[in-house]
């Protein structure tokens, strides 16, 4: 069926003033001003909508929805924040609570206009060995694309790392499960719904050997690599103390300076490091909301892009962001980057990071843009709320006036959100069940 998405208020695409035509899950035609499609079977009247490419979230920790604004962790920077929450997570994240945390995060993301999400799950207490299987099941249930990032930690407090002993796994267990998950789920083909990345957590939670072994697996299975890097000054100091080098030098030593890699945060890089990352096409996921909440610092987005690094956008963990709303993250990215640079940073920059830039970080050229041949992944917003009244430029209005909820979301040509509600999810039940599960994380203080 050829569907003409007709006459939107505005659309983030070139020569598509009268909309787009989709067929078999892809965009097959852009309809310019004064034109009509060559052929179509049905029409969707988009005259109430502003349309953008589906947002692509390149860094998250879904399970952390269960500890938003947790009393033990609020008003702290990263290291003390982690030390407060690691024991709580280790004790209370079970397959049941993990499933609900994942389900809620994915649903919340989709409702904000997100069509592809990457989660960096690194916590594997006893009993949670099937975490990646749970995430795939939940993504497939909702119908959202996902990069399942098989994270890992094998450096605990007794080894000089940050997490408690119960939160980590041994290297053999980690590598065996990484290979299992890659063999079972990784689909690098165009239009795929599930891809796998390997994601050792951070320099202060994994060994050098595990970082190097992960590179070998990534090359064998043609997958991406992801880790936290350069998030805080504490992390820089940790690397200098334990490895006698800065984080980017460490990355180079373990073989991670290549185009398979995208990093979370990437804040505390000097000029030479920015140049080196760009030269090797290492991507950086900018996490503006989390960076502000934890007072981590400001990502050098303009310098990184100029050097050659893809820059994407992520909400980061729902306990360091306290929501899973990527459209809100777009506005935060605009604001913090204007403060970092100047007012010439535009809404187009912020939207580009959340779409094309994020897709590049994930190694995908089939999503992130409304163009012929791309997947039919789009987010539709109305401007009916009071917050939008008086808005002149519709696309700028979305970002500057604080859009946060999509009226409709399309993935691979199918409607996944209609009238601001996911088509396959009981929101009231999810809120009730997730809220009950989250109480356990408060009771354990």
Automatic annotation (TrEMBL):
GO molecular function: deaminase activity; hydrolase activity, acting on carbon-nitrogen (but not peptide) bonds, in cyclic amidines; metal ion binding
Xref: NCBIfam families: PRK08203.1
Keyword Membrane: no
Short name of one Pfam family: Amidohydro_1
InterPro entries: Amidohydro-rel, Metal-dep_hydrolase_composite, Metal_Hydrolase, MTA/SAH_deaminase
Domain Amidohydrolase-related as annotated: residue spans: 50-413
Family assignment from sequence similarity: Belongs to the metallo-dependent hydrolases superfamily. ATZ/TRZ family.
Keywords, ordered alphabetically: Hydrolase, Metal-binding, Zinc
Organism: Breoghania corrubedonensis
Protein name stated in the entry: 8-oxoguanine deaminase
